[in-house]
Specification:
The protein contains six helices and six strands, in the order E-H-E-H-E-E-H-E-H-E-H-H. The chain is of the alpha/beta class. The structure holds flavin mononucleotide.
Length: about 150
Amino acid sequence: MKSLVTYYSRSNITKKLAEKIAGKTNSDIEEIISNVKYEGKIGYARAGKDAMTEKIIDIKSLKFDPAEYDMVYIGTPVWAGKAASPVITYLKMNEGKFTNVKFFATAGSSGFESTFKQMEKKSVKPLKTLSLTTKQVKNDDYDLDSFIE
Ligand SMILES: Cc1cc2nc3c(=O)[nH]c(=O)nc-3n(C[C@H](O)[C@H](O)[C@H](O)COP(=O)(O)O)c2cc1C
């Protein structure tokens, strides 16, 4: 089965998880790179605002076409109870191309369910979801087996 892991990460937590999932599943990996600056304090405020308004932003061109994969794992940090705007942009750009998806998200503590609902609305129903706190990812305190099986 051909699989792809696509993710956005502002501060490398979701990235760390995405790389683990890609390693364990032998997937290609696509990092969504934002052309909008979300770094620093101003970037943080912009990120929250863009997430709340579900803004479609400018992202760098992609390496992989999700339509060519049997399974696409899509990962995001939770921003204000929503998916990060680069991920929403990715879903919008690839509308109609997803068949089997699984979602994963990292957050300080909460907002996973609303994030996954929003992502589902923009793509298809996920076969599985994985919610991990920033702390769990940092401490490698999780088990991927049931998510990737
Ligand atoms: C703009 C913004 C909004 C956030 N909103 C939430 C939130 O609603 N709930 C939460 O638990 N964490 C929230 N966080 C924390 C991140 O989800 C968390 O730190 C995540 O693991 C960061 O992943 P990353 O390093 O891949 O960007 C927010 C972070 C940012 C930058």
